[in-house]
Every structure is written in C-alpha cells, then in structure tokens.
Amino acid sequence: MKALVYHGPKQVSVDNVPDSKIEKATDVIIRLTTTNICGSDLHMYEGRTDVAKGKILGHENLGEVVEVGKAVDFIKKGDRVVLPFNIGCGFCANCERGLTGYCLTCADPTVMPGMAGAAYGFAGMGPYQGGQAEFLRVPYADFNCLKLPEDAVEKERDYVMLSDIFPTGWHATRLANVKPGESIVIFGAGPVGLMAAMSARIQGASQIFVVDHKADRLALAEQIGAIPISSSDDNVTEQILAHTKGLGADCGCECVGFQCFNAAGKEVPNMVMNALVDAVKATGYIGVIGVFIPTDPGAADDLAKKGQIAFDFGKFWFKGQKMGTGQCNVKAYNRRLAELIHHGKAKPSIIISHEIPLAEAPDAYKHFDNRDEGWTKVILRPAA
Known about the structure:
Helix content: 25-40%
CATH topology of the largest domain: Quinone Oxidoreductase, Chain A, domain 1
Shape: globular
Strand content: 15-25%
CATH architecture of the largest domain: Alpha-Beta Complex
Largest sheet: 7 strands, mixed
Radius of gyration: 20 Å
Number of strands: 15
Distance between the termini: 14 Å
Structural class: alpha/beta
Number of domains: 2
C-alpha cells in the first residue's frame, strides 16, 4: 500500500510499504477514504519530537471496514467508521473511567515512568502506524470504531473532524468549564482553536474571543461567531478587559501549545499561558489543550528544552484561577458530537481549506508548516 512516511526533519514521502494486516482477533482493517494533516503532525515533521524514521504519520482517520478479526462482534465489513486519534482497550482502569486518552493497556511504558495513552502515528504513543495511508489496522475495533449514520458519505468532510479536532476543541471548553451566558477567550485560531470557538457557541457562550495574528484565520473565527482579537496589536489583555467591563473573560482556552510565536515570528513558549492568566478573570477556569511535550531539544530557550516554561504562577495563584490540561478523551464526546453533525447543528468542515490526494501530501506539509496564507486545514484522500 502507499503511505506517507517520516524520514527525518522536514523529510516525508509517499512510499510503498507493507499492507496493514490483522494482528489480533480484535482488529479490523479499514480502507482510508479521508485522513487529515494535524498541527500535531508538524511537531514530528519539524523534528521536535523523537518519532522514529519509517513511521507512518496520521491520526485523524475515517474509512470503510474491509477486513474483520474473528473476535470482533459489532463492527462489520462495509461499515463506515471514524476513529478517535487515541487508541483505547475499553477495559483498563482508565478506559473504564472514560479516560481513553490515557489507556494503560495500549501505552508504551518505555517512554517514561507512569506513561499512559496511545495514538496512531504519533511519537511516544506506542508502536501503532498512522492513517495517512491507503489502509490502517485498528486495534480493539469494537471499542474504538464509531460507526457512522446513513449520511456518512454525504457529510464525510464533517465526520472526519470527529477523529480529533472537533472533540479536542470541545474538550478545551469543558476543561475551561464554560457555561451558558459566560464569556470565553481562546488563544489560537488554528483548527483546534476554531473548533473550540464553535463548541463554545453551541454551548451558549455569550462572548467568544479568538486571539491570533493570522488575518485569514481570524476571519474564519468571525464567521463561526467569535470576536476576532489580533495579537499583532500587543494589547490583547486590554482588548479583552474592554469587552468585559474590566473583569476579564470568565474562562479561557490555550489552543497553541509549546510552539508559540509572537507577532514578530519569535518563538516564546510561555507567552500564551501567561497571557491567559492576564485575560481570564479572578476565579476563572483555564483549559490547556495545546500540545506541550516533556523534552524539546530544538526549543528556543533552556527551560523549554526540558519541557518547562516560566509561568506566572504567583499571579495565577493570587487570582484564584483553576486549570485543566491534557489530551482529549475523544470517546467521551464523539458519539454526541456526531449527532450534532447528523442533525445539522454543527458543520466543522467550515475550516477545510484544501482537499487533495495522498500523493500531494509532502507538498501540503510544506505549506501547512510554513503557515502559508489560506492553509487552514488539509484533508487527504488516499483513494483519489
């Protein structure tokens, strides 16, 4: 089969690789019909993680089941399914609690002591290959596959967002504890930040501020129903305070992560976290969904190389704020979010900027990594 393979920093290519195959009786094989490039893929693409050469990337996957293991009961050949980016077993202590992003069975314990969680095609998240390919092995398929309704083909561009960014954006707002009628500030107008804005709107937020320095992304945020705030103006906190009677937003979301750049293009890893402490009111909640990693040898400063930032903890403590962090447990949300799509209450495909064949993926990575104008969200069609 053909798949996008990582060969080193900024070196990916579509190669012929061995076909995916059933390894356990609980597996299925799916034929990928849509698979996305995620901002998290860029961390590996840029060489900022320890992903191994030869890894097939891609954790945002949707397709048709073409082969079924003998122990699979519910999922059938021909089903259209979308997969959470995180792989869970369904029976470990964390999966039982709904924390499927921290599965103990599928985790790779050699990464770090106490490590939990697994994902397709991702550094430090187990041996599982990714789905930027023609076929993909799905472990514990009855648990991990979300079978899609009868409009699966018609709304495929929306349903594929259930693999990661729509639930992740929703998770950001839940970590921030947004309530109907409250205001929320979202730093980052990338795909996850835009999905957080859409999620906040659905949940009844009264004011949704989205902060970014890219005009094309802020225009999308405004289209979703947010108030765009340009970080190029160097007075983000003042703008938020002006909109909120001097109090600050009721809650906030960090949707950028460790690769945070200021308007001048300089990487400042702690900028957004500290800006959130400033922009969110006293006693407000902060949800951190942007990716931070334990070590980053390519970081801009010595602290960040050790996975650390200079955080305004004194101000955070003095304001009595609360914080939730960590990757999204997709299965906690994806079934209900699919219902929102099915009944026309959510259309996450609004952020898609490019839809291209798998063969053009290496060029798409270059554009997406450069943050070129108009490259908001790329979906790949392996069967095109």
